[in-house]
């Protein structure tokens, strides 16, 4: 066939092509392209070419938010706790307090062991141990030269041990070397260190029916709660503690849903150190959980990279110092995440920054006694040091 041939039955679509029977091949090719595209909606094509990349980018940036918001569709909430009322007043006798809880008072208090895995939370540990010091028989602390994510770190407690001289006579300290396995799930290293802490507790001399506090350093039981449990008989073998949940300082009260801290009546061969739900019993209003409550911006960055949820650092700018400082003062989320809730109502209710509270009532006593040292943890003092 000749190069300029065109079926005359298609003159309604290709009329211009047929008229150019003796045109150049390049002109003919362009004409054919125009002919082919004449049947398409160019606006729809442009929307497709521009819209799809934008949609992919939005999913990349905000996909985690979408999955968290849709969480109530595919995930049911856990079984609710049985919340036990908690009675306390400094002027009420221990005999009456035990009776109010349905327990009997003991002739002598139980021994109490407070066991923690330590990373770098020196200030919070100081506040915790002073809060619990009148009631604890033995402090048990284990630290590693590795974070849960396999990052090498200093032995911060060992280097600052003299700061805790008030607890030295009741301290069982241990150090464990990290395994530094690349690409491993951080929860494997965390479990490895908790098993080691289990052994350290035994070295500390714990015996049956002693009380064992299982909680992270920043999950601080109130002193009067531990005093109640050591003086009362017939308390549950395992009791989770409901803690007021604070973020960055005691200015941002998130909720009262922190429950991982627990107290155990120790049983040889049965009690294992863990940080997950172990019973349905929850004692109301039993202390404070102050998460990411650091003095220095560098400590925020360190923890973000070091703890088991390191996958939440989706972009490098999350670790920018100026951004972190802004987030702290605003009360928003370091990882730009939606609330981890199980109903749309709860998710929507918690959207946006956490409202500030200006109450410093019923906080750890040592925090208020040392306001010059720990002012950054009190309402109205959000600025952090860079060192």
Automatic annotation (TrEMBL):
Keyword rRNA processing: no
Signal peptide annotation: none
UniProt entry keywords in alphabetical sequence: Membrane, Transmembrane, Transmembrane helix
GO biological process terms on file: N-acetylglucosamine metabolic process
One protein family per Pfam: Glyco_transf_17
MF (Gene Ontology): beta-1,4-mannosylglycoprotein 4-beta-N-acetylglucosaminyltransferase activity
Keyword Transmembrane assigned: yes
InterPro entries hit by this protein: Glyco_trans_17
Source domain of life: Eukaryota
Membrane-crossing residue ranges in chain numbering: 40-61
GO cellular component: membrane
Protein name as it appears in the record: Beta-1,4-mannosyl-glycoprotein 4-beta-N-acetylglucosaminyltransferase
Organism of this sequence: Panicum hallii var. hallii
Organismal lineage: Eukaryota, Viridiplantae, Streptophyta, Embryophyta, Tracheophyta
């Amino acid at each position: 066939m000749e190069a300029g041939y065109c079926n005359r039955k298609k003159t309604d679509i290709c009329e211009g092509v047929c008229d150019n029977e003796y045109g150049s091949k390049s002109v003919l090719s362009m004409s054919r392209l125009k002919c082919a595209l004449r049947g398409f909606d160019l606006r729809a094509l442009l929307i497709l070419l521009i819209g799809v990349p934008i949609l992919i980018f939005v999913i990349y940036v905000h996909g985690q938010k979408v999955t968290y918001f849709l969480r109530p569709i595919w995930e049911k909430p856990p079984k609710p706790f049985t919340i036990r009322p908690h009675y306390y007043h400094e002027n009420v006798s221990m005999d009456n307090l035990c009776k109010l809880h349905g327990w009997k008072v003991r002739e002598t208090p139980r021994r109490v062991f407070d066991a923690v895995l330590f990373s770098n939370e020196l200030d919070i540990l100081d506040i915790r141990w002073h809060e619990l010091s009148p009631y604890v028989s033995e402090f048990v602390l284990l630290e590693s030269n590795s974070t849960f994510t396999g990052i090498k770190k200093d032995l911060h407690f060992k280097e600052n041990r003299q700061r805790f001289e008030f607890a030295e006579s009741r301290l069982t300290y241990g150090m464990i070397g990290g395994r530094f396995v690349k690409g491993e799930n951080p929860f494997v290293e965390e479990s490895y260190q908790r098993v080691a802490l289990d052994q350290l507790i035994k070295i500390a001399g714990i015996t049956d029916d002693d009380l064992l506090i299982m909680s992270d350093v920043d999950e601080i039981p109130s002193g009067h709660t531990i005093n109640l449990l050591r003086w009362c008989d017939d308390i549950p073998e395992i009791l989770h503690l409901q803690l007021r949940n604070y973020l960055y300082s005691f200015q941002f009260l998130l909720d009262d849903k922190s429950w991982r801290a627990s107290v155990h009546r120790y049983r040889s061969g049965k009690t294992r150190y863990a940080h997950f739900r172990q019973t349905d019993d929850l004692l109301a209003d039993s202390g404070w959980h102050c998460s990411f409550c650091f003095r220095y911006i560098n400590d925020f960055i360190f923890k973000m990279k070091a703890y088991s949820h390191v996958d939440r650092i989706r972009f490098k700018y999350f670790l920018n110092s100026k951004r972190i400082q802004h987030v702290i003062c605003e009360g928003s989320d370091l990882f730009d995440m939606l609330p981890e809730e199980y109903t749309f109502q709860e998710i929507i209710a918690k959207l946006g920054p956490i409202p500030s509270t200006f109450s410093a009532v019923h906080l750890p006593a040592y925090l208020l006694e040392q306001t010059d040292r720990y002012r950054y943890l009190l309402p109205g003092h959000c600025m952090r040091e860079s060192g």
